[in-house]
Amino acid sequence: EDLNPLEEAEGYQRLMDEFRHTQDVLAHRLGKSRSHVANMLRLLKLPASVQKYLQEGVLSMGHARTLVGVDNAAALAEIIVKKSLSVRQAESLVKQITGGADDKKAAAKRKPKSYVPRDVDVMALEERLTGLLGLKVQIDGEGTEGVLSIAYKSLDQLDDLIERLTQLPVTKY
What is the pLDDT, as a whole number, of residue 115? Predict the structure, then answer.
């Protein structure tokens, strides 16, 4: 059958609930990528009005994916529909409207801090992990404790990272 993206997502959720499958197992059984299943399931988190637009074909899958995780998704969907924006235009609109919060975070990071020399070994480890993952890695620490940050630029990159990390063997310390 030809299912709309929302029906497909609901079907995936039903299968996961009924058979207690993870996204990874379900994706494997269906011959889909885990990121595809994850992206489809994210559609179920959209507000009802946005889901209705998607179901009716007023918004495309690309439009809907742009709105996932945005606080004012319903209002943005209205603008996208009224102005008949393309997916790229919708992405620009979302970035423009939500970019204010990101700009404030970036400005806070640019504030001068007292200079603390970085450990050469930590910097080498950051470079190594960045090369292995293909994503920017930052390690901040003091003494024996710290924080490892991995920056991603899209949900697909995050899904791929999670996929790779969950495939690693578990070692107990």
Answer: 47
